[in-house]
Amino acid sequence: MQFSGAEIIVKLLERQGITQISGIPGGANLPLYDALKLSSIKHILARHEQGAGFIAQGMARASGRTAVCFATSGPGATNLLTAIADARLDSVPLVAITGQVPLPMIGTDAFQEIDTYGLTLPITKHNYLVRSVEELLWVIPAAFRVAASGRPGPVVVDVPKDVQLRKMEVTKWPEPGGPAEPPEPDSPDVDRMVQIINEAKRPMFYIGGGIINAGAAQTIRRIVDKASIPTTSTLMGLGAVPSNHPLFLGMLGMHAARYTNMALDECDLLIAVGVRFDDRATGKVAQFCSHARIIHVDIDPSELGKIKMPFVGVEGDVAKVLAAAESRIEAVDRSAWLSRICELKAAYPLVMPGADDPLSPYGLVLQAAAVAEQDAIITTDVGQHQMWVAQSFPFSYPRQLLTSGGLGTMGFGMPAAIGASLAYPNRQIICFSGDGSLLMNIQELATAAEERTNIKVIVMNNAHLGLVRQQQELFYGSRFSASRFHAEPDFPAIARGFGLEAVDLGNVPDPKKALKHAIGQRGPCLINVPIPAEDKVFPMVPPGAANRDMIGGENHVDND
Amino acid sequence: MSITTNHVKQKSVLELTVNNHPGVMSHVCGLFSRRAFNVEGILCMPIGDGHRSRIWLLVNEDERLENMVKQLDKLEDVLDISRHGADHQIFSRLEEYFRA
After folding, report:
1. Which of B22, B66, B76 faces A146 most closely, judged by CB atoms?
2. Which of A97, A416, A421, A486 maximizes the CB count within 10 A of its CB?
3. pLDDT tier for residue B1 given thresholds of 50, 70 and 90
4. Whole-model pTM?
5. pLDDT of residue A557
6. Domains observed in chain B
C-alpha cells in the first residue's frame, strides 16, 4: 500500500504508542497535520511553539515516557529551541518533529527557512534532517530509541515538506523504537563501591534526577534505611526519598537548609548517584565535601570526573548498580554520625518565616500542600517561588515535582502543568509561578482552558523579578536595576479573560478557605497571591562561594 | 575558534569511525567549538562502501581531552574512537601540503 511521508510519520507515531501531540501547524508541516486529522492521536493546539514544547515536556516528565511535539519550519522551529534545550539539560525524553522547506529550496533563504539541524545540534541528544521518504522508516523509531536510551534527552527530526508529500510502498512496518537495555554494571566497580560504603563512618547520599529516571527510588529508600545513610537531593531528585523521612536532609547547595550543607562538609564519603555536580548544588567545587571520598554512579560516562574526580566511578544504570550493591551493603551502626546530623538539624534548621500565613511564601506553599490531593503533581516556574517550593513542599514520591532545573527557564511551569494534566487527566496539577515567569508563556492559559485541564496556577505576585531583586539587594548594593514591574497586570482578570476561574487571595476575607476552595474545584484556575517584594529565599550561598558560606536563614535571626 | 597559547602543547591524534552523512562533521566539530577547544587539524575521507567515514583530528593535549573523548563516544554517529600519541604519522606526512 502507498503512504505519503506524513502518513508514515503518523503511523509510526501511533505504533510508538503516542496518543497525544502538542504543536502548531504552519506552511511546512501542513502535510503532517493533514495526516494527523485521520489519526487516533489527539492534537493539543498550543499558542506558541515554546508552549507546545513545554506541554510535551510536562507529559514526558510526569509519565517518564517519551513525548512528541510538532512545529513548522523557521519561526516554529526557533520558538521550540528553548523547550528543547531545557529538555536536554534536564534529561527529558522528547521527540520534536519540525517541518522544513522542500529539499530543493534548502539553502535558498526560502520563506520560513532556517537551519533547524544546525540550530538544534548543540541542544539535542541527536538530530536528523530527513532527506528521503524511505529514511523515515528507520529515523522515527531511531529517534525514540535515542530519546529514551541511557540518559534520556531530546531528539529533533526535521522533515522537508516534499519528503512529507512523497509516496512510497510500505509492506512491513518497523518495530517501534524504545530504550535499549542498559548494560550490566562492571562488578569490580560495584564491589569497591560496596566495600567503601561499608567502611565509611560518615557517609552521605547525594541523589538526583538519575534516580527518578532509572526508577530507583524504592531501592535507594531501602538502602538508606538499612545502612543508616543520611541523604540529600538535588532539585531534580526531590521526591525520590520522602521529605519526611528521618534521614532525608532536603535539597543541597545554593538554597539548602544550613544543616544540610554543614553535614556535607563533615561527611567522609559522598555517594553521588544520578547527579552531575551542578554548580547550584556544589557551590565552589574545590571546597565541596572537601573531607570526603567520592563514589559517583551515573549512566552517562562523560559525567564521571567531569567536575570532580571520583575515588570510585561506576558507569551504569543507577537502578542496576544499586540493585547489585543492595544486598551487600551492610547495616552498619552509624549512631554517632546520625546523632551529629540530629545536632546540626536542631541547631541549624530550615527557617521558614510566615509558615502559618497563607499570604507569605512559605505559608502559601505549606497551605497549598495541606489542601492538595495526595497524588497532586506540582510544577514550578523559575525564581524565588521555585526555591521556596523546593525547600518547603512535602514531596513524597518520584515525578511529583516537575521543574526546570538545568536551564532554569521562566515560562516552563504553566505549559508543563498542562502537559502533566493531559498525561494524568484525573489528577490535580498545581503550578507555582511568579508574576515574572507566568507572563513568559501566559498565552497557554488559552490552551489550559480549551483542554479543561485541572491545573491550579498559584502566582506569587511581588511585581518583581524576585530572585533578580534579591541578588541586587544582596550583591549589588540594593541598586534595583530593571527588576521592578511598574505596570502590574490584573492576573485574575487576565485568567478570566482566557476562560479560567480566578481568585485573588489578597482580596478575600479568608485566604485559607479561598485557597482550599480554588484548589479543590475541578478545572483550570488561577490564584493570585500578593507577596512582599522584600521576602527572600534564605539561606543563600553567593554565586561562586563555597556552600559553607551561607547568607541568611539563621535560626535566631528574624529573616524579615 | 582558537585559544592562543604561549607555549607549545603536547598534541594528540584522534581516529574516529563515523556514519557518512552531511551532519556528522558539524556534530564532531561542534563538540570542540562550543567548549572553545581548538581543533588543530582535520582529515576526513569515506571508507569501505562509502556509508562510513574516517575522521582524523589533531588536538592539543588538555585536561579536558579525556572528557572530550567520552563526549565524542556518546555521539550517535560516532561508531568507534581511538586515541593516538602525537607521533602518529597521519598529519606529519601531509606537512608538505601545508607550507605557508
Report:
1. B76
2. A416
3. very low
4. 0.96
5. 52
6. 11-94 (3.30.70.260)
